[in-house]
Design goal:
single chain, alpha+beta, Aminopeptidase, eleven-stranded mixed β-sheet, five-stranded antiparallel β-sheet, 40% helix, globular
Length: 413
C-alpha cells in the first residue's frame, strides 16, 4: 500500500484549494499562517481553535497513543495561495475498527468552530470544498462535532449539511461591559448577596485560623507546579461526587495543560492563560484556570480542596475571578458548557449549543442515529439518576466515553 503524504493537496471546488495536515510537524510548519489568521479573523470564542491550543495537543500526544489519534487539519487556500480557512479536526480510532473524525483536542476543547476570513457565499463554498474531503475519507465512519455555538462561524453550514443530535446545551456567560471597575460589579448583587459573600469569607478564615489571599500566578514555575495539584484536587472532588470527566481523568491531561501554559506564555499575541489561586499562609486552597482572548475570559477549570466544599470556597473564588476579569478589561466572562444552576447564578445570558454528526459509512449512520440520538441520552439519564456512591463505585468510563455533562473541566463548585 502506498504511504499517504503528511500534507495532501486536492483540486479546487470553485476557486478553493484544500490541504490536509496530518502530523504535528506539519502543524508546526503551518503555525505562522495559523496565528496570522486567528489574529486577523478569529473570534473571541475560538481560543480552542488557536495554534497554541493545537500545538500543545500535538506536544502532549506525540508518540504517546500509538495510532489512535491523528491530526486532520483542513486548510483552505484562495487563488493566491493564502490560507483563508482552517478547520482543526482529528481522526480517532476506537475498538471494533470504529473511526470518528472530531474536533482536534477532544476531549480537552470546548466550543468547536472554524477560523476563517471568509463570509457569505465564499465561506459556504470553501466549507463545501473542505467537506468533500471529509466525505471522501474511506477510513472514517462518522464526523462528530460537539459543542457548536448557535453563533459559531460554522453553525449555518452545519445546520444545512449535518444532522443535530437530540441533546441541547447551554453555555452561561456574564456581560462585563456595564462594569467599569470591580466595585461596579459588586453593585450587581443585592445587599443580602453581598452579606452572604462576606459570611463565606469569614467562615473560611475562622475555619483556617488565618486570612485568605487571592492572586494570579505569574511566574512560569509557579504555574507549572500548580497544574498537577489543581488536577489532583479536582479529580478527588469528582470521585467523591461519583462524576465522570473524560478530560480530567485522561492520562494526557497534565502534559496537555502544562504544554498549553508554556505555549500561551511564549506567544504574547495569542490567547492568554490566567491561573488564579486562593491561599492561606502560602498554601493553595482553590484554583481557577481560564483563557483570555479578544476580551473574553473563558473559565475553563475550577478546583478546590474537597474538604472545603461545604464552606463554599469555590463560590468565593468565582466572585474574585470575575472581579479580576473586570479589573483586567475583559468584556465577557464565559462559564462554558454545560449550563447548570450554579453557573447561571453567575451569568446574565446563556448561549445555545448543539452537537452535530454526519455519517461517512453505514456503521457511522447506525452509530449516529441509534446511539448518539437515542441510546446515549437514555444511558446518561440513567447514570445520573444513580446515587453518587453508586456512580463512584461503578465509574462507567466506557459508557461515558462521550459524556458532555461533565466533560467541561469547569463543572461545579
Amino acid at each position: 500500500m502506498t504511504a499517504v503524504p503528511a500534507v495532501e493537496q486536492f483540486g479546487p471546488l470553485s476557486a478553493w484549494r484544500c490541504e490536509v495536515v496530518r502530523s504535528r510537524r506539519d502543524m508546526a510548519a503551518l503555525a505562522d499562517e495559523w496565528r496570522r489568521l486567528e489574529r486577523q479573523a478569529g473570534r473571541d470564542t475560538q481560543a480552542f481553535q488557536s495554534s497554541a491550543w493545537a500545538l500543545a495537543w500535538g506536544d502532549a500526544f506525540a508518540g504517546s497513543q500509538g495510532a489512535k489519534y491523528e491530526p486532520l487539519v483542513i486548510v483552505v487556500r484562495d487563488g493566491a495561495g493564502e490560507a483563508v480557512l482552517i478547520w482543526p479536526l482529528m481522526r480517532v480510532r476506537y475498538p471494533l475498527h470504529l473511526t470518528l473524525i472530531t474536533w482536534l483536542s477532544d476531549p480537552f476543547g470546548q466550543y468547536g468552530d472554524v477560523i476563517t476570513s471568509l463570509s457569505g457565499v465564499a465561506l459556504l463554498e470553501a466549507m463545501t470544498a473542505a467537506l468533500e474531503i471529509l466525505k471522501a475519507d474511506d477510513q472514517a465512519d462518522l464526523l462528530r462535532l460537539k459543542f457548536v455555538r448557535a453563533d459559531a462561524v460554522a453553525a449555518p453550514f452545519l445546520r444545512r449539511h449535518a444532522l443535530p443530535t437530540t441533546e441541547e446545551y447551554g453555555a452561561p456567560w456574564l456581560d462585563l461591559s456595564p462594569f467599569a471597575t470591580p466595585d461596579d460589579l459588586e453593585k450587581r448583587y443585592s445587599r443580602t448577596q453581598r452579606r452572604r459573600r462576606r459570611k463565606i469569607r469569614n467562615r473560611l478564615e475562622k475555619h483556617l485560623g488565618t486570612a485568605l489571599s487571592f492572586r494570579r500566578l505569574m511566574a512560569p514555575e509557579e504555574i507549572r507546579a500548580a497544574i498537577p495539584v489543581m488536577l489532583e484536587n479536582k479529580r478527588r472532588w469528582l470521585r467523591e461526587k461519583g462524576l465522570v470527566s473524560r478530560a480530567l481523568f485522561h492520562d494526557r491531561a497534565e502534559p496537555f495543560l502544562s504544554r498549553l501554559a508554556e505555549r500561551m506564555m511564549a506567544d504574547a499575541q495569542g490567547p492568554t492563560l490566567v491561573l488564579s489561586v486562593l491561599e492561606a499562609d502560602g498554601e493553595q486552597l482553590s484554583w481557577e484556570m481560564g483563557f483570555r482572548w479578544k476580551g473574553r475570559h473563558l473559565a475553563y477549570l475550577t478546583a478546590h480542596k474537597p474538604e472545603l466544599t461545604d464552606l463554599s470556597i469555590g463560590r468565593l473564588h468565582m466572585h474574585l475571578s470575575q472581579k479580576l476579569a473586570v479589573a483586567d478589561g475583559m468584556k465577557v466572562f464565559d462559564l462554558l458548557v454545560p449550563a447548570a444552576p450554579h453557573k447561571e447564578s453567575w451569568s446574565s445570558h446563556v448561549a445555545d449549543v448543539r452537537n452535530y454528526f454526519l455519517p461517512l459509512s453505514l456503521r457511522g449512520r447506525l452509530l449516529g442515529q441509534t446511539y448518539l440520538c437515542h441510546l446515549r441520552p437514555l444511558l446518561r439519564e440513567a447514570y445520573h439518576r444513580l446515587p453518587p456512591g453508586v456512580r463512584s463505585f461503578l465509574h462507567l468510563s466506557e459508557i461515558h466515553e462521550h459524556d458532555e455533562s461533565e466533560v467541561s473541566p469547569q463543572a461545579a463548585h
